[in-house]
Structures are given as C-alpha cells and as structure tokens.
C-alpha cells in the first residue's frame, strides 16, 4: 500500500516507523529538513521538504497513486486543508489529526462528513479513553479490551514481593491451576520478548497477559493485587491533576462510573467553569505540589492519582510526591519519548502518551478489513490485534504444531459459543476470532498466516 504522511512530529514519525516496517511504501512531507533527515536515516521512507498542503509537494510525493493520506502536523487547519487537497486527487482514504473540539465535538459545524475526511482523530480524546481503562483496572499499567470486552489484555509490573518473581513460565504453568491466563510478553530493560517455557520472570519486569474478564479477580488474587472494590464505607477515590480537556474528559467518565472524583486545577476561573459542569466531582483550586492541601482533601487515601497537565515534569514529580504520601497508584501523561521510558523506573505505575494513543487509533483505521480491532501497547512498543480465521490450512491442528510467525503469539480464541485462553493443544476453527500479541515487524507475517 502506498501511504503519504504529512507531518514529521512524534505521531508522524511513529506512523512512518510502524507502516514502513510492515512493508508499505511510505512518503513523508514536512517543512523541517532536520526532522526529515532523521526519519530517512532511521526508517525506510522517502522524505520531501515542503508544505504538506501545497499541490507541488503533494505531487512530488506521488499523491495521484496514494492509497492512504494522513495529515498529522501540529496545525489543525493545515491537516484539514491537506486532506481537502487529497480529496481532489481522489485518494481513497484520508485521515487528519485535529486538536480543536470545533471539528470533533458534539454540535460541530464542520464535521468529517462535510469535510470529506474519513477519520478525524483528536489525541486528547484518544488518551483520555486510555487513561479511563487503566484507572478502572486495579494494579494495571496497561489495559485493552477485545471481543466486546470479554477478553482483557493487561500489563502488570513485577516487584520483588510478587509471587511470580524468579519462577519460569513452565513452573507457572504447573502451579497456576485455576488461573486461566497466558503471559504473552515480558518487557525487561526496554526490550520486549515473547516468553518460552524456560524464560524466568524477574523483579522489575513488566508482564502482559490475556485473560477472560470473569477470571480477573482470581488472577489478581494470585498476583497479590488488592482489588479496590466500592464498599458501603466509600467509593474508589481518584485525584486528577489538571483541569484541561483531558482532565475534564477523564473526570466526567469516572464520575459516571461512580468513582469519588476530585479534580485539582490551579486556575480559579477554570475551577469555576469546571464546577458548573459536574454533578458530583469535587473541584479543588491548588497547585499539584501543594501536598498539604492535597492531604487535607484526602490524597493520602486515593486509589489512583492521575496527572494530566501540559507539563511532563510536573506530572511525573507530582505523581511521585502523592504516591510517597499514600496514593496507591499513579498514572501520568507524558509526551517526551525520553521521559516516557524513564518515568516507570522512578516509580510511576502507568504512563500514557497522546502520541501513542492517536497513532494507535490511526493504525487501527488504516488496517481495517481483516483486522477487527487493534491496540498499541505503550510499555512494549508492540500491538495487540483481533482478527478472524479464514485460512483452513491452520484449522483443526494444535497450535504447537503450527508454524506461527516469530515475534507473535496467540493469546485468546473465541469460538462460536465460547471463549478459550490459548494453550499448545488449542485448535483453530474456521470463523474463530483470535487475539494476538505481535512485536513490530511481525504483523505482515501474521496477516499472511491468516490470509
């Protein structure tokens, strides 16, 4: 597939990396020559320096033959204009990143239908959705749902006190008994591996598992993760630092889920505006590092502290400060790639990135067809995909006898009327839906396997 991308920022670079790795012909347009050089030096892409909304540069990029056009610059108007230009060249699929709610909010005058754009993706909306999923999963550092929410994909960080520490996957398979789940990946020292029987789980690792939603309480019991259940005494308490759009969206959804939500914002006018929009959420005017005020408001007994200001350092430092004073879990919004990998080593339980969230939503749309759903995994630079079995050559054979692509593993299978966590003896059937963990570069082989 020929793909033309406008914008060599974090989202554009990430998309180029993933799509070129899958064998697509990718061309990148950006005004900044230094960013283009970096992308061309590191990735298999062609770069063109110029205005992504200019016909001259679009034609240099081969827009007449492009299958997909993606505009992800930092300017909404440039992205929309570029997509309108692509429409004039009859590009089949047109995608734009927009940060303004004027284009994506309820009651927007210029909708994607009116603009002739197939997908308008707002990074703030995408990252808010991801934070909500993580906040609702006790102990998880990453979370995704598949098969209408029945199959859960979750990431957990392994501490020295974990019962899984220093045991191999083969030993785990022998003792887990009632615990129906499969460990699909282990992240250690910035690298992700598909584990085999002799691989050992160590302190500091992050493990990623597939499980049915009904089995999560038993799995958390095995992991010694204390479930924070609503009780007659109090609801789950969540503190959110930052009253911008992301903080507002997260607070609104968690309020609907019956959490005790407390939103911290330093600007008085914004606090008054937010207070008028909520029914139950408590809005607190304070700085994120004003720990005395936060302790008085109950942050010491918070089940989750979520920091979503526009400053990465503020989010990380305030999260660590509140955790030191009793908050059970912390979730931080982090934009910088360097800090994204550093924050977990400091003690942040989960980090989320607008870049990854937006790129994941775009990838899901670009690959629609055979792939039913897709989630980009923050902590492992990998993806989880759900697709349908159509290839009868892989059917009715135990998974252990199939030559499945390296760098990928089947985690769960949905037969016609029941779910199954995959084992070596599991057999695929025509029409099954399978959920697969795949490292970068292995997705094309997985798609060919099921083609």
| Rg over CA atoms | 23 Å
Report the sheet-strand fraction.
25-35%
Largest sheet entry: 6 strands, parallel
CATH H-tier superfamily of the largest domain: NAD(P)-binding Rossmann-like Domain
- CATH class assignment of the largest domain: Alpha Beta
For the largest sheet, list the strands in their spatial order: 3-2-1-4-5-6
Number of separate strands = 22
Number of helices: 16
CATH topology of the largest domain: Rossmann fold
Helix content: 25-40%
CATH architecture designation of the largest domain: 3-Layer(aba) Sandwich
Low-pLDDT runs = 228-232
Q: Strands, helices and their partners?
A:
Blueprint: E1 2-6, H1 10-21, E2 25-30, H2 33-42, E3 46-49, H3 55-60, E4 68-71, H4 76-88, E5 93-97, H5 101-104, H6 112-115, E6 119-121, H7 123-135, E7 142-146, E8 151-157, H8 169-175, E9 181-188, E10 191-193, E11 206-212, H9 216-222, E12 237-241, H10 245-256, E13 260-265, H11 268-275, E14 282-285, H12 291-296, E15 304-307, H13 312-324, E16 329-333, H14 337-346, E17 350-352, H15 354-366, E18 371-377, E19 382-388, E20 408-414, E21 419-421, E22 433-438, H16 443-449
Parallel strand pairs: 1-2, 1-4, 2-3, 4-5, 5-6, 12-13, 12-15, 13-14, 15-16, 16-17
Antiparallel strand pairs: 7-8, 8-11, 9-10, 9-11, 18-19, 19-22, 20-21, 20-22
Helix pairs in contact: 1-15, 7-10, 7-15
Commentary on this structure:
The protein is α/β, with parallel strands linked by helices. The chain folds into four domains: 2-121, NAD(P)-binding Rossmann-like Domain (Rossmann fold, 3-Layer(aba) Sandwich), CATH 3.40.50.720; 144-222, 2-Layer Sandwich (Alpha-Beta Plaits); 232-327, Rossmann fold (3-Layer(aba) Sandwich), CATH 3.40.50; 363-449, Regulator of K+ conductance, C-terminal domain (Alpha-Beta Plaits, 2-Layer Sandwich), CATH 3.30.70.1450. It contains 16 helices and 22 strands. A six-stranded parallel β-sheet has the order 3-2-1-4-5-6, sandwiched between helices. The protein starts with a strand and ends with a helix. Residues 228-232 have low confidence and may be disordered.
